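Colleagues,

For the teaching module next term, I've prepared a clean inverse folding example: a structure given as tokens, and then the sequence designed for it. I'd like students to try predicting residues themselves before seeing the answer, so please don't circulate the second half yet.
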């Protein structure tokens, strides 16, 4: 039976429906709500960047966490493979599939000392959107949700900030959740590509700083000392 090529809008809608169905109910911080936020903010950031192709941007945003290495025994090709399988089924152009795969391959944070440059403007947009969702109030909530999912303590003042300069050590990290602020979250503001994302990050970063200062104050009971 001859098939008619889907429009860009149909491809995006069908991909959103597929990812939504796959991720509903996920409790580890990789839920549909995260993907939806990254999708919407990628769309907004791409609108400020004429070089970014909207179809590639939206598909990469929707599929960026579809098979994260953290949940696939460290297999870094699981994500690109799953995205290719889905998009091939929709008969999306090979060149679009390749660009989406590249973004998924490049997007992840791999430790503070490991550079993760993005090779395309669409990739810069989606990485920025993903990173904006890791800071601010949502970022704090996601970090503690992830730590809880892994059974980690909130904080341990004995554990000095641990900074990773290889992907291997970052992957094997089991430090309490507050360490994640020092090994990643507080540095994201400086690692954004687009001016629009940098603007949004100011307030979100400030919130991280405020949260952390108050958390540590309460941890030591410093506010009680003022009674
Ligand atoms: P992203 O979706 O931004 O690529 P990740 O996939 O690395 O981020 O992680 C998903 C969420 O879980 C993010 O909010 C991230 O900061 C958080 N997270 C990842 N690793 C840890 C950790 N070791 N402790 C606490 N939170 C973490
Ligand atoms: Ni993500």
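(Answer key — instructors only)
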């Amino acid at each position: 039976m001859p098939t008619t090529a889907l429009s860009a809008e149909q491809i995006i809608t069908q991909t959103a429906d597929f990812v939504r169905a796959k991720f509903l109910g996920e409790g580890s911080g990789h839920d549909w709500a995260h993907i939806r936020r990254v999708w919407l903010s990628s769309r907004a950031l791409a609108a400020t960047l004429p070089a970014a192709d909207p179809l590639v941007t939206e598909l990469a945003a929707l599929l960026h966490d579809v098979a994260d290495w953290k949940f696939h025994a460290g297999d870094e090709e699981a994500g690109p493979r799953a995205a290719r399988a889905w998009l091939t089924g929709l008969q999306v152009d090979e060149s679009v599939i390749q660009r989406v795969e590249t973004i998924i391959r490049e997007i992840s944070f791999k430790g503070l000392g490991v550079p993760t440059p993005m090779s395309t403007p669409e990739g810069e947009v989606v990485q920025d959107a993903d990173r904006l969702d890791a800071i601010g109030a949502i970022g704090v909530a996601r970090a503690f949700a992830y730590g809880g999912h892994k059974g980690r303590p909130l904080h341990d003042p004995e554990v000095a900030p641990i900074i990773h300069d290889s992907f291997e050590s970052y992957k094997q990290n089991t430090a309490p959740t507050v360490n994640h602020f020092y090994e990643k979250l507080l540095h994201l503001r400086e690692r954004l590509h687009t001016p629009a994302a940098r603007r949004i990050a100011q307030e979100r970063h400030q919130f991280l700083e405020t949260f952390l200062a108050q958390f540590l104050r309460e941890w030591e009971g410093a506010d009680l000392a003022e009674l």
